[in-house]
Structure formats: structure tokens, C-alpha cells
Amino acid sequence: MDGRELRRDAAAPVDADNAPLMQLRGISKHFGGVTALDRIELKLFPSEIVAIVGDNGAGKSTLIKAISGNQPPDSGTFLFNGKLVEIRTPQDASRVGIETVYQDLALCDNLDTVQNLFLGNEKITSLRSGRRLNHALMESTAREALRDIGVATIRSLRSPVGRLSGGQRQGIAICRCILRDPRVVLLDEPTAALGVEQRQGVVRLIKRLKSESRSVIVISHDLHDVVLEVADRIVVLRLGRKVAEFQRTGINASDLVAAITGVQHFARGDVRSDTSANRMARE
Amino acid sequence: MSAEQVSGLSPSGRAPLVSRAAALLAGDWRYVPIATAIVLIWAFFALQNPAYLTPRNLSNLCLQSVVTGLLALGLVPVLLVGQIDMSVAAMSAVAATITGQLLLVERVSVWLAIAAGVLFGGCVGFLQARWITWTGTPAFLVTFGVSLALAALQLHLLPVTGQINLYGTDIVVLAGAYLPAGLSWALVIFAVLAFAAFRLSAFVESRDAGLEASVRSVVLPTFLVMVGLAVVVGALNMHNGVPIALLLFVVPIIVLVYIGSHTKFGLYLYATGGNPSAVARAGIDVDRIRIAAFVICGMFAAFGGIVGASRLLGVSAQSSGMGTLLLEAITAAVVGGTSLFGGRGSPWSALFGALAITSISNGIDLLGLGTEVKLATQGLVLVLATSVDSVANKFANDAR
Amino acid sequence: MTRLTKALAAAFTASCMAAAPALATDSDPSLTGTVYFMLPNFTTVRFVQKDGPDFVAAMKKYAPNVKVELVNGESNPGEQQAQAEAAITGGAKAIVLTAADPSLASSILFAADKAKVPLIAYEHEASGGPLTYYTGFGALKAGQAQGKNAVAALSDGNATPVARLYGNTGDFWQRATKQGQDEMLDPLIKAGKIKIVCEDYVPNWNPSEAQRIIEQCLTKTNGAISAIVASNDGTAEGALAALVSQGLAGKVKILGGCDANVTTLQNILLGLQNGTVLKDYSTLADDAARLVVAALQNKKPEDGVVNGEFDNGFAKVPASFADVTMIDKSNVGDVVKAGVWSWKDICAGPAAKTPECAAHASD
């Protein structure tokens, strides 16, 4: 079965520039008495990179888990291409064209690169050849895909990924997601465990996703190297609420830190922040 | 931070020697240590007593390793998914009892009796796995509890005489018959041709996909398989011939090896042992994979027990259930290179492992060294094998 | 049946005096309370399936108002000790103990002694502590019977190659049977009539271990052995399995044996094994019940029940040794007469076609 074809059909019409590709309406999530997400509104436009920032416990991961289908929200709706969609499992998300690169990368260390790239999405030989795993086709496709995104440096595609470097593993996780040809890529802390040089590699990959006209939602703590470097728009979460939203142009790291921690009033004109956020910031 | 980490997405530097050796041992060379060990064991005992390396003893070795081997083979998928089944020995005893009773008391045909025993093993495997996946109880505890229940069930199923005598029944063919020489050679030719055809198709697929592929990858392994099979079959034909029991062991290994490396299910077995949550997020039903592994295990345990009963010409409470069989089966799988930590191993490990530990007990019995030596060696081998496994696992995790 | 073997035993052991007429301990309804029979494990089937029920029946006969509790130590000496403590706490009037591990039973013996609960060791030696009585089959006699059986088959040989299978290293029954066998076989070995080419202990008396030991013996001798002397039936059956897979069944004699397993009796009828030593369990259970009753009545057991002394390393204990009978093709019927198995049990499978079975087809 090749899920890629199906997904291409689903996502075929190219949207007008001003119509959002994906829209979240009133997404809420509670854990017991704790409100993890409070009526989150979020739009994502085609070929747009949105960064979600916030302190620990702000609800970033919960939001990603809600969109990726790993932890469905209690209330709220998803619109994709203007149509209402149901996302209750990662497979639902996959079907509408959302793929996630998890913080832990979700790689099987004991499997090789090719096996990891196609896990759950394997290519099978024809009925006449016994419907075996098509190792040759998968390997050549993998080779091509890795070269496309500039991760052609893995010495052997047939050795376990547990032996590869952190950057290579990140590359594989992103490549796996691209192989499914998604419209939206969710990246959860893609640079958390990486060195400086490897971070730059990941940043290049994120930009590349945009250039392939995919939309990206990235969660990161890394304001300098990731958020301010690649994001078109930055959404700030605090205690489960969206407290601010910035266009990247004309904003600096200290503005962001202020919004994240809520200790300083916003001064700049291009800031679109809701009243509750301002109220919270004042308190 | 290792040198690799700062090199970003650029080519990683030369890995340390130990790590490279570990990589080789985890890859193409993974059978080198166990094969070396077997050769050393053989050399040691052959020096002590030349009778050790005779066709007659090779035949003994094959027959003696089959029961342990079949149980170990069943354990491989379960170990691959990172679980364990402590009920295999008890299962083998109950299945043998069921088959024996059906054969002698109900007088059903031998194939039906065997099928019923194997089916029972599969069902118990299914039930205990369903319980494990549903409740999240560690498999170690559930299967151990089940093994006690199975031991009780066997006592219940045995006739009042406490024994089932299978002498003179059709079932003794399983472990007591040999292939005629002609047929065995025909099978060798068939096996070599099938192997060559398979390698050839893999070669053609690689070439068509634009990958590096050389004809050597077809010719060399085929040649080695041919020589290996010819030596083994030739030696066995110098005694009684190729034991049917050996076929009943090796053919399932080949089937499982195929499943392991050429089907989605096989791949998922390995993946589940590596990172179950990643497998679940890839849209695969992890519980189903685990349950299937236990079902396979139960069926092989049952079949192993039936072959064991055929070999011993009977079933009794003493002959199979408790004792060292469980430990031997686990040791065999681990000695052969299947990890207790999940995700690493191969059905071949059942063959190599069972052969290795049987080679030792066979030699000790040949020299008449006594129970103390036997127990001490068994214990040492278990400790050694699991330690090697743990160290290998540590390397696999520390490599990056 | 019981009487017959009992009488035989008395004649054999005590003296050649006219065997006492079958003594029946009178039923004593005045005795009450609970007696515990502590079985060693589930794996030796006879304890659960024969000794336990036989003892319950015997107690019903001699002391109808005494309750018998059967507990099983599951091969675990620790478990068994806990069970014994529970029994003593629960007010046991007497304990019949088959030790899960004979050498680890002394704490049970001392605990019972301290609580003044009479303790009768049953079949397994219980060493290193005070005992009221011991009752068991004479393992030495079993070994001698096995030895005699082997001597009869091998005495006119000349350097006949023989393999010997002993029991589990170090256990009481193994030591005593080997000693009994040695007494008979040593003269033949010295005279050069037989030559022991392989000998080994069989861990836990496990038949598959015995099978492998014989397979390896055949390897070592290149198939040249004429007889195997086995110390019990399970190991003899394992030896036979080795012979069958090498096409040597019936060509190599299997001598010795012990327990009168049904499989072995069938093999004897089929000419695959020479004989076996019969231990009539109900005799033993009967003896144990009589000893228990005597202890509860605080009287000496009636004459003939105690017929020897058993030294368990702590003290010399009055003992009741039950006798053993050598069974071969000619007297398989004795097993039936002793009530151990029925002809129907024995005449199953290929054995059903033997003349002995044909003669008892209607039984």
C-alpha cells in the first residue's frame, strides 16, 4: 500500500495565499483540574514556518500532541483546507498530511536507516515476487531522499541507527517524515540534544521544508539559532494560553523572553497580543 | 561529547576500534563468535576422545539438540519483541501429554494428535500474551505463573499410571527415523538451487534499483551453502542418515528467517523490541505483534515437546516439565546471539546456541565427567552468554 | 495381596520363623485429631497418586475418626518446613514426612520433637534429627535385587561390555542401590566376566539425561555394548529410547530397573527389558498407618511391623523396611496381584498383543 499517492490527492488543490492551510479552533485540554491548553486558536498558512515558544509547562508539547493525534484534545476543532477534520490518532493526522518529528525522534536504534525511514510504510514487491519487503527499492529511494535533503553522509544505510550521530539521526527522522510527503511538518525540539554545527544542519533542513512548499510548526527553546532564524511567525504560550503572536520581522530575543516570562510590558507596535495576555503580563 | 557529535551532518570520523568491532559483531560477523566457540568446543572434546568427531556422534549431536533447539527457536520471536516466556518447558510437557493421550486413548491419527498439541500451545501462548498486553503485567511473572498451572494440568492429564508409552506408535517417526541417502542428496540439490535463485533475484532487484550489486554476492554464498550442506549430509549419511528430526528443526528456522527479514511482520518484531512506542506511533499495533510472537513461541514449545516425547518414546511428569529444559532453551537462544534486551537476534541463533550447549553436554557425557561438571558448565555458559549479551547491549547503546 | 507381600517381607527380613499370621491392627475409633502426610513433590507421580491415597485408606481402616491432611512440599524444602510449622501449630497429632530434600529436614524433625508430635519418616531418609519411626523400602535390597538380576543374565560372559546408570548423585536411594548392585556385580567384574565400559550418574534420575548418556556410551564404544544396568525404570526407559534410535532395541539387554512403571512392564512383556524391582506402595502406606496408630496410642507397634533399625546420623531409629520383589516376564501378574496396576493398565499399545496380555484380555 502506498499512502503517499492518497495523500497527494487529498492535498491537491493549491490554496490561495491568504487562506490558511490549517486552522485550530478553541483547542482545550485538561489533566484533572489542570488546564494544559485553554481555547487555543492557531492558523497555519501554506509554506509558512510557525514557531511555538514558551516556558516549561506552557503547553507546547501538549499542543503538538493534540495536532499529531497522540493526545486528542478535550474540545476544539481542526480545519484543514477549510474542511473540518477529526484527528484522534497519529494515523488520522498522517491521512490529512500532518507528520511529526518527535523530540525522542521515534527511531528504532536496532534497525538500520532504510528500515527506520519506511517503518509502517514499507514497500512491497509484486504478488508475483511473493509480496516480500522490497529492500532494493526502499534502499534506492532512501538514498535518493537522503541526498535530496543533504544527509548523504551516512556511511552504511544498513547499519543500526543507534550507531549514528545525533545530527544524522535527526536527519533520518526528518527524512522519514518527508518521505510521506506531508503538507504540514511538526517538529518538537529538533535541536535539543545537538551541538552547534548540527543545529545549523537542522535549520537548513527546516528552511528546505518551506522551500518545498510545506508548512512547519516548530517547538523550540532555541530562540537565536532556530526561532528567530527560521520562523515566519512566532506564537507564545504561557500556562496553556496563547498570550502573544509576533511576525518575525522586527522582533528580537529580549521581546520574546519578555513575552514568554510575562514580566515586561510590550512596547512595540507590530505586536498583536490579546487583552488577557496584556492583563496577565501586568499582573 | 564524542568526536562524532560535533561533526554535524558531515561524515563522521573514524570510530574507536572497540566500537567498530562491536558494529561488525552486531552485523555481518554476528555468527563468528558462536561458530568459533563451537569449533573450539569440538576441538577440545575431539582431543580428549577421538570418538567425538565421528559421524555417529554428529548424528547424536543433531538429535540431542533438536528439542532444546525447537524451544529456543520459539523463544526467539518473544525475545526479539523484548519479552520472555518462562512457560515453554511446561508447555512442551503438556502438549506432549495431550498428543500422547489423543494417540493412545482416543486413537486419533498421528497428524491430528500432533496438530492438536501444537494448537494447544498456540492457544495458551495467545491467552497469556493477551493477558500480558491487556494488564501490563511483566511477562516474566505471568508466564512463570502459567508454567506452574501447566505443570498441574499435565499431572491432571496424565493417566493414573503417570506415564504414556509411545513405543511402537507412529509418532516415533518424528525423532527416530532417517532420510534415505538418495532423498537427502535430492534435498541438498533443491536447497542449493532455491538458495541460488533467491540470491539471484535479490541481485537483480538491487541492480534494477540502481544499487551496487555484484554477482559475487550470489556465487560465493551459494558455494558456501553447497559445501556446508554437502559436508553435513555426507557425514550424516555415513551413519544412519539425516535424522527427520533435524529437518523438523531446520525447515522452521529457514521459514522464520525468511519471515524475519522479508516480511513486514518480521520487521515489526525487531522494531517492537527496539522501540515499541516508535512502532506504535508509526501506526503499527504493537500488542498484535507481541501476541503473535507468543503464539509462535507456544506452538514451537508444544512441537518441541512432541518431538521430545517421540525421541524419549514416552511422556511422564518427570521426563519433561520441570528440570533444566527451560534454562537450556533460554541459554541456547542467548548463546546463539539473541538478546534478552529485545530487538537483536535471529532464528539461526536457536540452531547455533542449541548446537553449542549440546556439544558441551554431549562431550561431558562422552567423557563420563559426572553431574558436578555438567552443572558447573551449564551455569558458567549461562553466565558467560548473558554477560556477553549485556556488554554487547551496552555498546549498542553507548555507540553514539 | 498386601498380606502376601507383607508376609514375604516378614519371612525375608526378621527370621525364618513361621510368618506371623496376617496381623490386623484393630480399628480404634477412640483416636481423633489430624495427622499430616507431608509429600515431597509433584514430579514423582507415585507420591501423589499412590502413597497419599493409600495412606488415607489405611488410616480410615485403623483409626476412622482421625482426619488425614495431605500437603505437598513442591520440591522445595523451605516450603515444606513452613508447612510442617503450620501443621504443628495447627495441632497435628502426628506427622508422616517424606522430605523434599532428605538432608535438609532436620529443622522439621527438631520442631516436631519439641512440640512432642510423633514424626514418622516415610521412604525418604530424614537425617540429622530425632525421629519416632522410619518406614521405607530397603534401597539396599532393591540394589541387591538389581545386581542379582544382572548377574543371572551375565554370569557366563567373558569380558562382556556393560554400561551402568546410577541415580542422582548423592541421594540416599542412589547410594544404597549402588551399594547393593556392587555387592553382586563386583565378583563378576573381578573374575573378568563383565567389563564396565561406561558408568555415570543420572541427574535427577531424568530419563532424557539417561538417554543421552547411553547415546554417548554407544559413541564411545562404537555401538559395542551388550547390557545396561539401570538403577530405576525411568532411566531404563531413557536407555531403551537411546537403543531404539540406534536400531539396537532388543539387541542390548536392559537389566536392573526399579519401580514397576507401566511403561517398563510393557517393555518387559515386549522383551525389551529384562525385569524390574517392584515396590508395593500400599504395603508401605499400611506400615506407616500402623506406626502412626501405635504412636497415637502411645503403645509399641504390634510385632512384625518394626523389623530393623535405621541410622539417620542422629540416632538409631526403629524402622519398618518393606520388601521388594523382582519382576520379570514370568511374574508380571504379581504386580497386578499386589494391586499396583491392573492388566488393563499394562496391556495397552503394542504390549496388548503379547501372549501374557492375551491371556488376561478379559480381566
Structural account:
The complex is a heterotrimer of chains A (283), B (400) and C (363). Chain A is built from ten helices and ten strands. Chain A has 283 residues and is α/β, with parallel strands linked by helices. Chain A has one domain: Rossmann fold, CATH 3.40.50.300. In chain A, helix 7 runs parallel beside helix 8 (223-230). The longest helix of chain A has 16 residues, at 196-211. Chain B is mostly helical and 400 residues long. Chain B is 73% helix and 2% strand. Chain B has 16 helices and two strands. In chain B, helix 3 packs across helix 14 and helix 10 packs across helix 11. The longest helix of chain B has 28 residues, at 181-208. Chain C is an alpha/beta fold. Chain C folds into two domains: 2-131 and 280-324, Rossmann fold, CATH 3.40.50.2300; 139-278, Rossmann fold (3-Layer(aba) Sandwich). Chain C is 42% helix and 20% strand. Chain C has helices at residues 2-13, 45-62, 77-89, 106-114, 139-154, 172-190, 207-221, 233-245, 262-269, 281-297, 333-337, 343-346, 355-359, and strands spanning 34-39, 67-72, 92-97, 119-122, 133-137, 160-166, 194-201, 227-230, 253-256, 275-279, 308-311, 316-322, 324-328. In chain C, the strands form three sheets. In chain C, strands 2-1-3-4-5-12-11 form a seven-stranded mixed beta sheet, sandwiched between helices. Chain C has a four-stranded parallel beta sheet with strand order 7-6-8-9, sandwiched between helices. A two-stranded antiparallel ribbon of chain C has the order 10-13. In chain C, helix 4 (106-114) links the parallel strand 3 and strand 4. Classes of the chains: A alpha/beta (283), B mainly alpha (400), C alpha/beta (363). Chains A and B meet through helix 3, helix 5, helix 6 and helix 7 of A and helix 1, helix 8, helix 11 and helix 12 of B.
